[in-house]
Fold these 3 entries.
Entry 1:
Amino acid sequence: MTKADVINSITQKTGLDKSEVSSTVESFLSVVKESMAEGNDIFIRGFGSFINKKKAKKTARNISKNTAIIIDEHYAPKFKPSPEFVDKIKSSVKVKAAKKVA
């Protein structure tokens, strides 16, 4: 599902204008990105958490050149779904059916 699909789905469910929904979705995503870039975590009850996860300094290998590369300590975005979200996916018949076909 793409962002456009999400916007169309919200438009159909709410009856709001597509441009209003698009603006709202874009604003939400912008706030999430900006807030996380400032070092803040975002917690949405019943959905999940967007967290800045600290990654330790490590040594990696460039196999093609056979050299070692040092990757400094850094932060990476992570999403952790809420227990309600996980339970909904686990109990979904459509997800189970799609996984059996693949």
Note: Residues 18-37 form the longest helix (20 residues).
Entry 2:
Amino acid sequence: MTDPADLAQRVREGELRLYELEDHADAETAAAARRELLAAETGVDLDAIADYTFDAEGVDANVENLVGGAQLPMGVAGPVPIDGGAADGEYYLPMATTEGALVASVNRGLSAIRAAEGATARVTDSGMTRAPVFRVAGVAEAETVVEWVRENTEQLREAAESTTSHGDLTAVDPYVVGDSVFLRFIYDTKDAMGMNMATIATREACSLVEEETPADLVALSGNLCSDKKPAAINAIEGRGRTVSADVVLPREYVEETLNTTPEAMVEGNTRKNLIGSAKAASLGFNAHAANTVAAVFLATGQDAAQVVEGANAITTMEVRGGDETDADDGGDLYASISFSSLEVGTVGGGTKLPTQSEALDVLGLAGGGEPAGTNADALAEVIAVGALAGELSLVAAFTSRHLASAHEELGR
């Protein structure tokens, strides 16, 4: 068996490079050699990083230059009943986070939703995008390219779908900026988040565009996709799953358990989440939806960087029912959250890692759904309900003036 210390010494001497270690040893030994090197170079004890549960041989698709694992505390909130288009039943919500009070806050919101006999959730659109940018001589050639794309979408579909048995090209939207032509390809990627699938399929379609038009490909991603960056196009057109959740909370529960009123929560939501966000020119009009998105993403193996798009959410609240002329007959609280670009999957990527796979099993959503796409739809609906719970809890906390004390009590 190869000695990790010997491999580390060969790297120090310049005989090997860090990324070449798997060519000379198994993955576990290569990782141990990198730890030996890091420990020697930095003087840091890496015992905790070395204590991981996944198979080092099986994570080559997830990470390079493996040294070990990073552990996060994982909590659970719920259960909560959900009436979704794909999610149907009671769900516990696994959340990995380092932020004290977050799981407790979401759990309080889920308790409120449970008292209202559950939330409703629906995925209303789905599509992963990739938008290459092409160079043309000018706007006349740009028009030629756009016309060809519109007349030959079926040929582009055949080219793109030849690379995968799991993704469908649903549309190609052209955009022209002077001598640049952007083509925003939109795919149904089923239960996969689908970014890699979309990229490979688009590359094949781009070859056809170059063959048949004057366009020259400059970049396979022209940032009109737009991936892992705040972008109005995702807030408007959507990317990944477009999903909404809502609930009606009885006035009595709001007053007696959340220690506030529907009217106060509506005003707080309007002044903070809507007016404040508008003044800040924010793309997300919500209190802290990304908190829940990030925690569930980390727990279930999603691409954590896509929390950026997951912050594209709008929270609304209003008083429903009651008699405005009778102070003793006030209405209930209607609350909703709508995500335009929640990018999730239940197959591929980090979903195969042991702890993340177990978390998806807790939700009953690991692997592909039947029919294809329903597990990822259900995950999006569950996250939306969890985020709605977080919004309810936080808005109630600051309208009842309990926000700071809650963080003090729970370690923040």
Note: The two ends are 48 Å apart (CA to CA).
Entry 3:
Amino acid sequence: MPKLKTNKGAAKRFKITGSGKVLRRKAGMRHILTSKQKSVKRVLGKPALISPTHERSIKRLIPYS
């Protein structure tokens, strides 16, 4: 069976943890940060888990991670 190609866009956006969960970055930390509270920016800076509904499709895009 031939090797599978990794979707490079997905590989840059998602990370698979040791237990097999998928991490993503939160939206809203690129610009217009002066109007956001410190607590909001602190929460937005931390990675979040993908919902279990989407986990299977994301893992197909990044087969060797």
Note: Helices lie at 8-13, 38-44, 52-61.
